[in-house]
Design brief:
By secondary structure, this protein is mainly β. The chain has one domain: TonB (TolA/TonB C-terminal domain, 2-Layer Sandwich), CATH 3.30.2420. The protein is elongated.
Length: 107
């Protein structure tokens, strides 16, 4: 799986968001000593009707703000894909509230 699980919050939209997952480049964690140890991030993603990420908002990141450009640059390449068998007439890919959470440990 490309990324950890995420949560979607309700919004005023004509259709609910389809079950699915993000595809695209994986996040690469910095390999410098500065980033060794445990870290965490919370990001809100917006997607267009075709599922492409249109906005990345960093809500929180630990250990360091220097990590943000790596996260944003990677997530901007992502696309939200509907799960196999999803009824696209009953759900959509557009959302302003994909909440993405990840924890990592670099030794």
């Amino acid at each position: 799986m490309l990324q950890p699980a995420f949560t979607q919050f309700p919004e005023s939209s004509p259709l609910p968001v389809c079950e699915g997952e993000f595809t695209g480049k994986p996040i690469r964690y910095p390999e410098t000593k500065k980033f060794r140890g445990v870290g965490s991030m919370i990001v809100r993603l917006e997607t267009a009707v075709d599922g492409k990420v249109t906005k990345v908002a960093i809500l929180g990141v630990i250990p360091d703000e220097d990590f943000i450009s790596n996260i944003v640059g990677t997530m901007e390449t992502w696309t939200y894909k509907a799960a196999s068998g999803a009824d696209r007439s009953a759900c959509g890919l557009e959302s302003r509230n994909h909440l993405y959470k990840a924890s990592f440990r670099i030794l």
